[in-house]
């Protein structure tokens, strides 16, 4: 009950911030429509909807980090977290309370992205349901990054790190805008050492019905998500037990 | 019976000692005012007692529960109104109250009923459906204190509760605190001498992390030979009591 009360508060805080809706759902959709419009007017296949939609869905998830990190960092700066730290909420109540409302938001965000993609020519089949499942580990990864950033950064720093740096790294090093094989070399090696390109490739494989190619990429994401979540939990607990509340 | 027993409580931040070996007993159901100039160690003491900060050494037992070994149990029976306003900005006044009731274990209907009672008691009905971020500072402060009381704590820490409140709101809060006397043990920090004098059963004066004096307002005035309680406080806080 305590956890649910806290999670419910966080859900309301997130959904009532119009910027969250604008950036979380609106901005990825604008990019989807814009790049599809460009594709319709160029002779080469650059932004094919089967490849573009999974990339945009993963890119959209990067905003989940921004939302969660901003909420936590603001709670810290406004003494609200001090009030909550003095309450009987346990560390796990806090972590789950912040993380749980974000997962349905991430799934909703991806669903909206794929529904709009249907109108842009994405085939309607069971693979779209599969991709929504495949996108859960990337969603958890981004939630973890948000928890970590919110625990150690101020709300202003969060804007720079999650709002600018993370979204750009997610976009450029994920193969959303271009095929990483075209660039190759060190750029490709760095991209595939990080989880974002693997998340996009796993989602692309799911959409294409190439089921055997999903897990090899998804393990990378699951590995990163696990490590980031553990670090985030440790950082949050240190903050909770520290002197900086 | 004592609600709070503090033994050798100390807090060090690197080289600086914020609270030096504090020993204090506070009787159950009384209002205890902790006074001191900025940086005297009042807020650090409150943070340690409310389990927000771990003491460097020493312990405090709150209604039989140690802040070191049973912090979760202490958190169940105590609540705090922080110095700065602490509300959820995008939640309405009612939602903020129901949130805290829920966090302290009241479910659904019980949480709603408690929220209704606090709205009535703190005269919040005209802003009940307003988001907290749209309220003026005074209203936010009033809500913040109502949030501390909705859990029906046995021990309540009020860190400068009337800071920023207008005279009427301050008097209303005084009235609320008066009503709690005998039922809730209140530890109050304040910079307003008349507030400490009017509300508290006993007063502790802290300076540079140490408890310099303890007693009722009348006792402290008598001890310093001052004319007013404010003069007595100045004498105790500056260490010039002998010449006062």
Automatic annotation (TrEMBL), chain A:
Membrane topology recorded in Swiss-Prot or TrEMBL: Multi-pass membrane protein
Keyword terms, alphabetized: Cell membrane, Membrane, Transmembrane, Transmembrane helix, Transport
ABC transmembrane type-2 domain span: 19-239
Main subcellular location of this protein, as a coarse class: membrane
Gene Ontology molecular functions: ABC-type transporter activity
Transmembrane segments: 21-40, 52-73, 94-122, 128-149, 158-178, 218-236
Places the protein is found: Cell membrane; Membrane
Domain of life: Bacteria
InterPro entries given in the database record: ABC-2_transporter (IPR052902), ABC2_TM (IPR013525), ABC2_TM_bact-type (IPR047817), ABC_2_transport (IPR000412)
PANTHER family assigned to the protein according to its UniProt record, in alphabetical order: DOXORUBICIN RESISTANCE ABC TRANSPORTER PERMEASE PROTEIN DRRC-RELATED
Membership in a protein family: Belongs to the ABC-2 integral membrane protein family.
Protein name: Transport permease protein
Organism field: Candidatus Cryosericum hinesii
Organism lineage string: Bacteria, Pseudomonadati, Caldisericota/Cryosericota group, Candidatus Cryosericota, Candidatus Cryosericia
Automatic annotation (TrEMBL), chain B:
Name of the protein in its database record: ABC transporter ATP-binding protein
InterPro entries per UniProt: AAA+_ATPase (IPR003593), ABC_transporter-like_ATP-bd (IPR003439), ABCA (IPR026082), P-loop_NTPase (IPR027417)
Superkingdom classification of source: Bacteria
Keyword Nucleotide-binding carried by entry: yes
UniProt keyword terms in alphabetical order: ATP-binding, Nucleotide-binding
CDD domains: ABC_subfamily_A (cd03263)
GO CC field: membrane
GO molecular function, one term: ATP hydrolysis activity
SMART domains: AAA (SM00382)
Annotated source species: Candidatus Cryosericum hinesii
Occurrences of domain ABC transporter (ranges): 4-233
